[in-house]
Amino acid sequence: MTALLLAYVYLRLSEEEFKCGESSSIQNQRIAIRQYCERHGITIIREFVDDGFSGGNFDRPGFNEMLRYLQKKEVTMVLTKDLSRLGRDMRESSYYAETFFPENGIHYIAIHDNFDSEKDNTLAPFQFAMNDVYLRDTSKKVKNILNAKKKAGEYAACPPYGYAKNPRDKSKLIPDEATAPIVQMIFQLASEGKSTRAICDQLNAEKVIPPLKYRVEYTGEFGEKGAARASDAWNYVTVKRILRNEVYLGHTLLGRSKKVSLKAKRKVALDRSEWHITMNTHPPLVSQDVFDAVQRNLKASAKEWQKYEHVRRSIFGGIAFCAHCGTAMCSAGSVYKGEREKYWYLQCNNLPKRSPKHCDHPARIKYTDFLEIITKELNEFISLTDEEMDEIIRQVQAEAQGGQKEQQAKNMIRNIEKRQKQIDDMITKLYMDNVSGRIDDERLERMVRSLDEESKTNSSKIAELRDSIEAASQVTDNYRDFFKLVKQATHIETLTQDIVRTFIDRIEVSERILPEGTTIAGPKTPYKQEIRIFYRFIGDISGEPVREVSRDEAS
Questions:
Q1: DSSP 8-state assignment for residue 495
Q2: How far apart are CA 348 and CA 410, in angstroms?
Q3: Fewer Cβ within 10 Å of end Cβ, the chain: N or C?
């Protein structure tokens, strides 16, 4: 009986190809592959499709799903119409076609390119190179088309919040009935002197859907990853971005950023002189007078905040998090008699007044207290002698090995391996004795079963010992790497962001623990707070993460 040939089919059409009128549609690919499979007796089990995804990027949902299915080993054949459907990046395409698929026992066929991973493919390098060239050429064509549209004042991008594309002319913008009034309200409040944070709080209180969430729910322009980023809450950065956008004056501003390279996702901002600006291309949502008033208020607010720049900007950005909800902690405070530093804090960004999904136990700590705690603990590491560091390494190594030294573990492995060889020899002799008639089948089965059980126990023990040695070795290496950093440092007088990022990966802060009977912390109130510090390489090593902050004097 002939073995059944089962295959997965991968289909792809890039957004660039669609825009340029590429004839190689998903349906055309499907027809070509099915005709091939009928001629060669191949059964298609499943199709994986990426419609509108560039061949220069292999992070595609359909392709990734196919890789997950291939791990099951139920199907070991993949077909595409040609090599370009797999991808146009020369290095990545070559890797999957000539290395990944063969090494994982997957038979890959690109029909129209006569590529078969189980045969010699002399022309393959040239085919991969030509696909890469095509990618660059197509990208250039698309870029030229978009640039022409930009110069003509056509809106060649997703419409900004407050606008929609004109159904009769997709290159033009019209006010969105649902969101245009929201934009106008934001500008009106800002022109009256209301801060971006206050506007943000009002929008959240009125349960207004923020821009990204609105696009996900009402335009369908995002996939799963994009939708996951959409928050239910407004933030002041979004409000400020709207208030600074001249598109609401009726002007088209495009080309404000560009990719760092053809195949990269990261974009960089361009100087205003490089933008494509076309005046009066669509109905404005705000007047020039209102827009100018808002810019003056934003500038005045910025100047006020800049007076306290040295305390306003937290050096723990991306490092400090609320232990309860996992949200990043932000800097916050207020001016009281001109003394902002005395009342400056790090706090959970999911405060009840700020976020609909507020934290039930938000962390909050005085900024100077936090600086003092982190500085003190880092200096304790820096003050360690070489002997003390070596002793710490010996202790963690012993703990990782369950109290056993490495040499002891290796000796135990050798002894167990000797016993394993004895068991193998004994089993061999038992079978020989059975053949010669010295022991019967029943006794043979009983004795072999007993020896097999012992052998399995020994194998498990060897694996455990080797894991402990490896784990201890890894822990030891991690501590040595950390102490290398420590030895390069000197006593810290002033903690900086660079120092924090050198030594620390993450800090988790819990809510304050106040003295019994105290519900509100005053300036003299002592408190305790759990602060878990995850150091680079070695993680959280604190036996007791609760820190005590005393208050002998008013702070």
A1: -
A2: 49
A3: N
Sign of the CA dihedral with 447 first, then 453, 459, and 465 last: negative
- Whether 16 and 36 map to the same domain: the answer is yes
Position 180 pLDDT exceeds 90: yes
What is the DSSP track for 440-473?
Answer: -HHHHHHHHHHHHHHHHHHHHHHHHHHHHHHHHH
Neighbours of 243 (CB within 10 A): 22
| Count of H-run helices and E-run strands, the chain | 19, 19
The reply to whether 74 and 13 lie within a common domain is yes
Which of 27-36, 146-155, 246-255, 524-533 bottoms out in mean pLDDT, i.e. has the lowest? Answer: 146-155
Same domain, 105 and 139: yes
Counting the structural domains of the chain, the total is 4
Residues with Cβ within 8 Å of 329's Cβ and at least 6 positions away in sequence, in order, are 314, 316, 320, 321, 322, 346, 347, 348, 349, 363, 509
d(CA 353, CA 355) in angstroms, rounded, equals 6
Phi-psi region of 276 (alpha: psi -120 to 50; beta: other; left: phi over 0): beta
Q: Is 81:29 a contact under the CB 8 Å cutoff? A: yes
For residues 368 and 345, give the distance between their C-alpha atoms in angstroms, rounded to a whole number.
8
Whether 555 is covered by a domain: the verdict is: no
Which of residues 487, 508, 535 is at a domain's end?
Answer: 487
- The size of the chain, in residues, is 555
pLDDT given at position 147: 56
d(CA 438, CA 418): 26
Q: Give me 361's structure tokens.
A: 């136990």
Beta bridge partners of 108: 78
CA torsion angle for 314, 320, 323, 325 (degrees, to 10)? Answer: 70
Domain-located, residue 554: no
Amino acid identity of residue 441, one-letter, is D
Measured between alpha carbons, how far is 238 from 462 in angstroms, rounded to an integer?
A: 57
Phi/psi at 11 (5° precision) = -120, 135
The DSSP result for 38-90, as a single string, is HHHTEEEEEEEEEET--TT----HHHHHHHHHHTTTS--EEEESSHHHH-S-H
> Which pLDDT value is given to residue 156?
58
117 pLDDT band (50/70/90 cuts)?
Answer: confident
Do 65 and 71 contact (CB within 8 A), yes or no?
Answer: no
Query: In the beta sheet, which residues pair with residue 320?
Result: 507
- C-alpha dihedral over 255, 260, 266, 267, to 10 degrees? -20
Helix (H, G, I), strand (E, B) or coil at 225: helix
Whether the Cβ atoms of residue 421 and residue 379 lie closer than 8 Å to each other: no
Residue 175's SS3 state is: strand
